[in-house]
Amino acid sequence: MQGWFWGRYFRPFARRPAETEASEPGPDAEPVSLIVCTHNELENLRELVPLLLSQDYPAGFELVLIDDRSQDDTYLYAQQLSQYYPGRFRLVTVSHTPAGFAPKKYALTLGIKAARYERLLFTDADCRPVSLDWLRLMQRGFAQKNGADIVLGFSGYAEAPGLLNQLIRYETLLTGAQYLSFAWAGRPYMGVGRNLAYTRATFNSTKGFASHIRRLSGDDDLLVQDAVAAGARAAVVADYEAQTLSQPAETWGAWWRQKRRHLSAGSRYRAADRRRIGLFMGSNALFYVLTPAVLAVGWNRENLVSLGIIWLARTLLALLVYVPLARRLRTTLPPLALPALDFLYFALYCAWGLSLLRRRPLQWK
């Protein structure tokens, strides 16, 4: 089963042709609204905003900053930006969230309503576009499929020392491999709000976040779910210059809470998407579950040799798939550490799933 996913989805995506470079002529005629929702992230904004306002995009764009109940000096900083960039910068202030509404979804809704343009491009305050052509290249995704409604981008995490950072980047690679390659094969099911674009008409077709406005997570993947169900077409733009880069969680607890929040939206996916993801994740987890079961039958030489051959074959196959994927997405993957990272990730994935059964409260920020 794992080999089928690797051959059917991952490897073809890793070998897909490079996208048109920003220096080449392209469909860059439509203005774009860049939308960033922030909550107490002034220092991140000081780094991010200059990079956004410096994007090379002749058709014009605006930056819509949504200040969601910040208690730092975000508002004062935004007021300065309004003076320096009249007509290019717009501030939306959220002073409170209605009872029972997910704060970020409510804030994003207000920001989208305030945006001038039809095409909307989203990122987070802790993200950084890797190039000044990010906006241009993401916008070109709308020209795919004879007029796409959603553009799915990739957002990696910065490299740092330590096992936690390696696991975060491996998980991000594996998640990106799934949602990008599935979409490339015509089966889109999610995107990441750190690098995602869609049209206002697409947002309106789903009545915004109405179907999940009270659920904390899902401002990106559940929006894509609803939009695809309504007939929206999704394109993939994943070359390096069109990516964003984020700072990863620095503690195991922070990462645990982040992943638990992200995975909580999965129960709302369409049945076909849940089956597809479940088969991939389940077959990987089952491999590790069956290993001790085989050993329990007997520690004889024949069992050990057979198990060793299976492990070696699976590891080699994973290397043949994930190394090209990492190269395609321009993220580093230590080949020698792959077996350990894979085992730890799927063990944690099972733990995250079990933890969601306890229905502990989730929080944004």
Molecular shape: globular
Uncertain parts:
none
Provide the CATH architecture of the largest domain: Alpha-Beta Complex
What is the CATH H-level superfamily of the largest domain? Spore Coat Polysaccharide Biosynthesis Protein SpsA, Chain A
Helix content: 40-55%
Reading the helices and strands in chain order gives HEHEHEHEEHEEHEHHEEHHHH
- The structural class is alpha/beta
The CATH class of the largest domain is identified as: Alpha Beta
Oligomer: single chain
Task: Report strand order across the widest sheet.
Answer: 3-2-1-4-8-6-9
Would you tell me which CATH topology of the largest domain applies? Spore Coat Polysaccharide Biosynthesis Protein SpsA, Chain A
| Individual helix count | 12
Distance between the termini: 38 Å
Provide the gyration radius in Å: 21 Å
Report the biggest beta sheet as strand number plus sense, adding barrel if it closes: 7 strands, mixed
Q: How many individual β-strands?
A: 10
SS strand fraction:
5-15%
- pLDDT average, as an integer? 88
Can you characterise this structure?
The chain is α/β, with parallel strands linked by helices and 365 residues long. The chain folds into 2 domains: 13-250, Spore Coat Polysaccharide Biosynthesis Protein SpsA, Chain A; 273-356, no CATH class. Helices cover 49% and strands 13% of the residues. It has a 7-stranded mixed β-sheet, sandwiched between helices. It has a 3-stranded mixed β-sheet with strand order 5-10-7. Helix 1 (2-14) packs across helix 6 (163-184), helix 1 packs parallel to helix 11 (301-329) and helix 10 packs across helix 12. The protein is globular, with a radius of gyration of 21 Å.
